[in-house]
From TrEMBL:
<keyword id="KW-0238">DNA-binding</keyword>
<dbReference type="InterPro" id="IPR036388">
    <property type="entry name" value="WH-like_DNA-bd_sf"/>
</dbReference>
<dbReference type="InterPro" id="IPR005650">
    <property type="entry name" value="BlaI_family"/>
</dbReference>
<keyword id="KW-0805">Transcription regulation</keyword>
<comment type="similarity">
    <text>Belongs to the BlaI transcriptional regulatory family.</text>
</comment>
<dbReference type="InterPro" id="IPR036390">
    <property type="entry name" value="WH_DNA-bd_sf"/>
</dbReference>
<keyword id="KW-0804">Transcription</keyword>
<protein>
    <submittedName>
        <fullName>BlaI/MecI/CopY family transcriptional regulator</fullName>
    </submittedName>
</protein>
<dbReference type="Pfam" id="PF03965">
    <property type="entry name" value="Penicillinase_R"/>
</dbReference>
Amino acid sequence: MARKQERSLLTEVELEFMTVVWDIGGGTVRDILAELNKAQTRAYTSVATVLKIMEQKGFLASERHDRSLVYRPAVPKEEYQRTTLKDLSSKLFDGAPAALVARLVDDEEVTDDMLESMRALLNERLGDNGR
């Protein structure tokens, strides 16, 4: 029986796979392979191995349908985003979310429209809809 590993953060490749699983809601190795191959050709066995590792880490769950395993997200995308941002804030910004936001706002690639969207989100969260 495979042992369940402690859930950590996804590697770059795992995140690419997980994004596909989140987007399609789950599927067989062939389903996931077909989506991944739209961007880059991968081998069936490589995809199957990565999916099994992700299941062991607790990011995916599987159940057998006929002769195939069907993989589904075990972690919702929003939960993973939250965990990843907390980790990033903790490790890179000394646990200060304001420092993370300040760095984001200082980024020259962030447009005025994006800043306005951020302001609207902050105002909504703070209850300052009219200000």
